[in-house]
Structures are given as C-alpha cells and as structure tokens.
C-alpha cells in the first residue's frame, strides 16, 4: 500500500488555488462595477440625446409652422396689395377720364367765360372752375371769381368741388389770393379796377 499524503502538502497545494479564486472574484467584481458605471453613463447619454432630439424636432416643427404662416401672410398681403393697386389704378383712370371730360366740356365754356365773364348755369360754372383748377391757373381763377360777385352762393358751393380736381389746392388758393392778400399788388391803376375795391369777399370764398 502506498503511503497517505501529508496534510501539509495538501495545504500547500490548496492555498494557491484559493488565492487565485479570490483574485478572479475581485477582478469580476471590478468588471461588474465598471460595466455598471459604463451602462449608466451610456444610458444617461442616450436619454440626453433623446431629449435633445425631441427638442430639435419640436423646434423644426415650430419653424415650419412659422414659415408656413409667414408664407400665407405674404400671399395674403400680395393679393391685398395687388387689389389695392388695381383699385388705385381704377380710381386714377376714372379721375383722368373725368378730368379729360371736364376739360373738353369746359374748353369752350371756359374760353367764353374769360371773354365775356358769363356762364350759362351751375354746371357751366363748375366746368369753368374745374378747367382753371386742372390748369393750376391761379390768376385766371382769381379773375374768374372776382368777376362773379353776383353768383356768390354758386361760387361758395362750387369752388370746393372744383378744387378736388386740382393738383395742389393750397398752392392754387394762396397764389390766387396773393393778388390782394396779404399785400395788394394791383397798384394805383391795377387791372382797370380801383384800388379801393374790396375783394375780401373773394378771399373768403376761395
């Protein structure tokens, strides 16, 4: 029979195996901790990326909505502007036609009125006034008015209507009354009228 193994020898053989086991256990524990740390880190990164992606998506949707809204507003404004231009052009054409008609109608009436100082009726008076306003003839306008003191009421109602067709109503009015206001420019022998003639009524009417 062989001799039985020495207990001391068994202890020497078992000791290195236990140390190796502890070393491997410690290594596995470290690996597990590192893996857990890395997993948490990547999970956190993934969540942050998802949040940023969602925020970016919402931002893009908002920008798309704002862009679409802006495009719709621009289209609406374009249509509105085009419509306004058409209306303005139509009004300009109407005024141009009315001015031409007024000039045509007032051509003979205005010439006769300047020659003999008379017009047939209210329409003729208005046509003559419009003709002078359209031509910005301040001196003719003034002479026409002061020659018709007897038609004061008609002048009072027709002059504002005629001035509507004038290019620059304030300028025409100021130039017209400048004959006597603020300084009387007629002189002692002005225009066949006596200097003592009071044309204040004409200034008020104009």
TrEMBL record:
<dbReference type="InterPro" id="IPR012474">
    <property type="entry name" value="Frigida"/>
</dbReference>
<keyword id="KW-0221">Differentiation</keyword>
<dbReference type="GO" id="GO:0030154">
    <property type="term" value="P:cell differentiation"/>
</dbReference>
<dbReference type="GO" id="GO:0009908">
    <property type="term" value="P:flower development"/>
</dbReference>
<dbReference type="Pfam" id="PF07899">
    <property type="entry name" value="Frigida"/>
</dbReference>
<comment type="similarity">
    <text>Belongs to the Frigida family.</text>
</comment>
<protein>
    <recommendedName>
        <fullName>FRIGIDA-like protein</fullName>
    </recommendedName>
</protein>
<keyword id="KW-0217">Developmental protein</keyword>
<keyword id="KW-0287">Flowering</keyword>
């Amino acid at each position: 029979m062989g001799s039985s193994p020495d207990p001391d020898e068994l202890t020497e053989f078992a000791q290195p195996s236990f140390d190796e086991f502890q070393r491997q256990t410690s290594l596995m524990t470290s690996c597990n901790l590192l893996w857990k740390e890395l997993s948490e880190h990547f999970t956190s990164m993934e969540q942050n990326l998802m949040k940023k992606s969602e925020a970016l998506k919402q931002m893009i949707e908002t920008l798309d909505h704002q862009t679409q809204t802006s495009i719709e507003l621009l289209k609406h404004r374009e249509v509105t502007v085009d419509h306004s231009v058409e209306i303005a052009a139509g009004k300009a054409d109407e005024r141009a036609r009315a001015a031409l008609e007024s000039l045509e109608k007032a051509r003979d009436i205005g010439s006769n009125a300047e020659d003999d100082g008379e017009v047939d009726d209210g329409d003729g008076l208005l046509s003559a006034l419009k003709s002078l306003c359209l031509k910005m003839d301040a001196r003719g306008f003034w002479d026409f008015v002061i020659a018709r003191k007897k038609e004061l009421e008609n002048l009072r109602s027709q002059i504002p209507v005629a001035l509507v067709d004038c290019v620059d109503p304030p300028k025409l009015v100021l130039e017209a009354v400048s004959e006597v206001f603020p300084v009387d420019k007629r002189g002692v022998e002005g225009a066949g009228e006596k200097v003592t003639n009071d044309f204040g009524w004409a200034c008020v009417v104009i």
